[in-house]
Amino acid sequence: MASDTSGPGTATGPDRLRSTGSSVSGLVVDAVSVRFGDVAAVDGVDLHVPPGTVTALLGPSGCGKSTLLRAVAGLEPLASGSIRWNGQDLAGIPVHRRGTGLLFQDGVLFPHRTVAGNIGYGLARQGVRGRAAAPRIAELLDLVGLPGFADRTVQTLSGGQAQRVALARALAPRPAVLLLDEPLAALDRELRERLAGDLRTVLAATGTTALFVTHDPHEAFTVADRLAVMDAGRIRQSGELQDVRRHPVDGFVAGFVGYPQVVDADGFLTATAPAWRSVPAADRPAAGGRLALQIGALTEDPAGPLAARCLAVRPGPDSTVLSVELPGVGPVLAAASAGTAVRPGGPVRLRLRPDGVVALPRD
Amino acid sequence: MTLTRAQLRPSDAVPAAPAGPPVTRARAGRAVRTGGLVLLAAVPLLVLAVLFFYPVGTMIGRGLGDAGAGLDILARPRFRRIALFTVGQAAASAALCVLLGLPVAHLVYRCRFPGRAAVRALLTVPFVLPTVVVALAFRTLLAQDGLLGSWRLDGSVAAVLAAHVCLNTAVVVRTVGVSWARLDRRPGDAARSLGASPSRVFLTVTLPALAPAVAAAFTLVFLFCATSFGIVLILGGARYGTLETEIYRQTEDLLDLPAAAVLSVVQILLVAAVLGVAALLRRRTERTLTAAPARPTGLRGRDLPAVLVTLVALAVTVGPLVVLAVRSLRGPGGWTLANYRALGTLGSDVQLVPVTTALGYSLRAAVVATAVALLLGVPLAVVLARRPRGRWARRWIGLLDGVAMLPLGVSAVTVGFGFLVALDRPPLDLRSSALLVPLAQALVATPLVVRMLLPVLRAVDDRLRQAAGLLGAGPLAVWWGVDLPLLARPLAGAAAFAFAVSLGEFGATSFLARPQTPTVPVLIARLISRPGAQNTATALAAATVLGLLCLAVVAAVDGLLDARSTDRPGAVGGF
C-alpha cells in the first residue's frame, strides 16, 4: 500500500483526508474503488487536488489512471469510497451537473459542428447561445492561440489545432475541475512539447483546477504542480512535484521521476567514496538501504575521481549514455557528452553528482 | 544471395527506381490484376445481362411500344392511388420499424441482461421466413375467427403495416445496433461533461452519429416494403395494392401488358432512386468507427421504456408466428395432427399435387438457386470490395454496385413475367426448362449474397493483405490465405440465407411455376385464395413446415442462436 513521503518539512504523502473531515477545499478522492466484474481497476485511491492547481496522475498503461479520471467525471460508478468537491459529496450528481470538463487524447470534437459549434456546446447548455456566446468563444480561441478559427469545420484542423479546440471547448463552461486524459499523447514529440507548455500557460491563466493523466514524466513535470504516481489501481505516492522527485518512496516511483536505476547503498557508497568527501555528512545518504540514481548521477569526466570500465556506448542526438562497470556495484548507466572518446571495453573516469542520488526508504 | 520477386518489385515509396524492366513488369502485373478483376466481374454481369436485363428490358420494351399509351396509363386515377399507396405504406412501415427498432437496438446492443442473445435471435426470425408464411400468420391472427378478430383489422392497411414491421424491424435493430455498439463513447462523455443531460446527449451527439445508420436502415426497409408482394397480396385484399401487386394483376388477370410495363418502369425508377440514396449512406456507415466503444451496461431504471418497446416488438414479430403454429395443430375437435397428415394427400380440389411433393420441388429449386446465387454473388462481392485509387475505377465499381443490386429492387413479378416473354425461343428457350424457377430465385438471392459478403470483405484490414504480399504471396495466394478463411463463416451464412430466400420466393415463382409443379409458397397462396376450412388448415400446416425448414437451415448453418453471430458483419440481416 502507499507509504508516506518522508519529506522534510511538508507533510506530503497520500492525501488521506477521511480523518480531516469533509471541509477540505478542492477535489478530494477518498478511498475510491472502481471494479469491472472481479477486477479492481481502481483500488482504494486517495487523492487531493487543491483548488487552482494541476495534479498529474502518472503511471504506466493500464494502471487505472484513466478509469479513475472517468470515475471523477461520474462516467464510471464507484464500487466504494467517495469523491467530493469543496466538501460536497458528488455521489448521485449526474455527469452533466458536476461541472467537470473532460479532454481526450485525440480531441473527440463533434464532427457535425464547426469549431465555434464545438466550443459553444457547453455554453448552450448553460443557456448562452448565438450572439451571446460569440465573445466567449472568441476569447477562448485567442487563449488557445487559434484566433479566427470559429467558422472552420473540424475536419480541416490539424491534430494540434483539434486538441487546442478541444481544450477551448472544455474550458468554455468554466468547469470546476478539468480532467485531461493523455491530451498530448497522440501528437508528435515537438508539437507535444510546445503544447504542453501552452497547456500549462492556459491552465495557469484561467486558474483551472485540473487532474492530468499521463504516462510521460516530462509532460507531468511541464504541466503539473503536484504529482500522483499510480500503479495497478493504487496510488504509490503523491505530493508536490519537487517533493516526490526528491523523495521517491520506492524504485517504481523513482523510475517515473527520473531515477531509472536502483542500486545497493553499501556497495555504491564504497565504490564512490572518493566522490563523497566534499559532501557534508548530513547530505550523504545513509548506508544499509537502497539508492535510486539518475542517469546523470555519474558523468564521464577525464579528471573525475572514479575509475570504471566501459561496457557499452549508446549514442544519442545530444548526449551519450554509457553502461559502466563500477567495482563492487555492477553495471550502471552514466552520462557522457555526445562526442565522447570512450570506447566499449576501455577504461572510463567518472564524476559523481550527489544530487542525482536519492536514498529509498527501507521497506 | 538471391532476391525474391517481392523484394525487386518497385513500390510507391521508391519513386526513383531506375526506369526499365522493373517498372514495365509492375505495370504488366497491374494490368493482369485489373484484367482478372474485370473478368471476375464480367461473368456474373453476363449472366445478369442474359437473365435479368434482357428479360426485363424485353418486357418493358414490349409494353412501351407506344409512349402516348404509357402517359395515358400514368394519368389513370387508379395508378395514382396505387403509386401513392406504394410509397406511403413503405414510408409508414419504415418509420414504424425505425421507431420500434431504435429502443430495441439500444437494449440489445448497448445493455447487458440475461437472454439478450435469445431476444436478438427471436427478433431476426421473421426476417428469414417466407413472406407467405408471415402473411398467413397475420391473416390467421386477424381473421374474423382469429385471436384478434374483434379488432376488425383483416384486409386493412394496419394489417399490412404490422406484417411489414414484423418482417423488417430486425433490419433496423441490426443496422443501427451494430453502429451503436461501435460508437465512440467519448463524444457523448465530452457532451455530458459540458453539461448535457443524457437525453440531450442522445439528441445532439448520439443521434447525429447514428443518423447514417438510421437512414440506411430506413431506405432498406422502405425498399423491401415498396416492393413487397406476398404481404400486400394476401393481407391487402382487394382494396389495397402496391405497384408490385398491380403489375401482377395487370399481367396475370387483365393481360394488360402495356400497363404492367409502365408500372415496372415506374417501380424501377423508384427503386433506383432509393438504392442511390442507400449507396451514399452506406459509404458513410461502413467506415470503421471503433475508437473507444462503450461497454454494455446492466439494465437501469431509465431503460424501462426500451424494455417495454422491446416486449411490443417481440409480440409483433414472434406472436403471430406462434399463433400460426398453434392454429395448425387445431382441428374442429381440438388438438390434432390431422392437418399435417393432410400434407401428404390431395386433400383439396385446388391441389394438383400433395404439399409433400411441392416441398420436393421447392427444395430442389432452392438448392440450384443457392448454387447459382453463390457463383454469381461471390465474384461480384470480391470485385466490389476493391477500393481502387483511380477516380474512374471507383466510378466503375460504384456503377457495378448499382447494377448488381438492381435485381433486389426490381419487381420479382417483372422478372418472372420477363422470363416468360423473353426466354421463350431459341437459343434461350427456358420456358419448359426445370431451370426456369431456380434461375429466377437465384436472381432474387444474388444481391443478398453480395450484401452479406461485402462488409466482411471490406472490413478485412488491408494491411493483412499487404503483410501477406510482403511475405511473398501473390494476389491469388493472398485471397486464398487471407480473404477466404475470414470469409468462410459469412459464406456459409450467405448460402443458408440464399437457400431460405429461394425456398420462400413468391413473386417470380408464382409466375413461373407450372400448376403441376408448384413450390410450397405458391401452393399455400393457392390454398388460401379459395374458401374452405380444409384448404386453410392445410395451408397453416404447410406454412408451419416451410417456416420451420427455413429457420432450421439458417440456424444450423449460420448459428442464428449463437450470440456471437449477430455481432459480426455479414450475419443474417446485415446488408
Automatic annotation (TrEMBL), chain A:
Entry's Gene Ontology cellular component terms: membrane
Domain ABC transporter intervals: 27-257
Gene Ontology terms for molecular function: ABC-type ferric iron transporter activity; ABC-type quaternary ammonium compound transporting activity; ATP binding; ATP hydrolysis activity
PROSITE patterns assigned to the protein according to its UniProt record, in alphabetical order: ABC_TRANSPORTER_1, ABC_TRANSPORTER_2
Stretch list, region Disordered: 1-22
UniProt keyword terms in alphabetical order: ATP-binding, Cell membrane, Ion transport, Iron, Iron transport, Membrane, Nucleotide-binding, Transport
Top enzyme category: translocase
EC number: 7.6.2.9
Cross-referenced Gene3D superfamilies: P-loop containing nucleotide triphosphate hydrolases (3.40.50.300)
Keyword Membrane: yes
Protein name: ABC-type quaternary amine transporter
Organism: Nakamurella endophytica
UniProtKB/TrEMBL annotation, chain B:
Recorded GO CC terms: plasma membrane
Keywords for this protein: Cell inner membrane, Cell membrane, Membrane, Transmembrane, Transmembrane helix, Transport
Membrane topology: Multi-pass membrane protein
Signal peptide feature range: none
Biased composition (Low complexity): 13-24
Membrane-spanning parts: 35-54, 82-105, 117-138, 158-181, 202-235, 255-281, 304-326, 361-384, 396-423, 435-454, 466-482, 494-514, 535-557
Recorded family membership: Belongs to the binding-protein-dependent transport system permease family.
Identification of the protein by name: Iron ABC transporter permease
Organism the protein comes from: Nakamurella endophytica
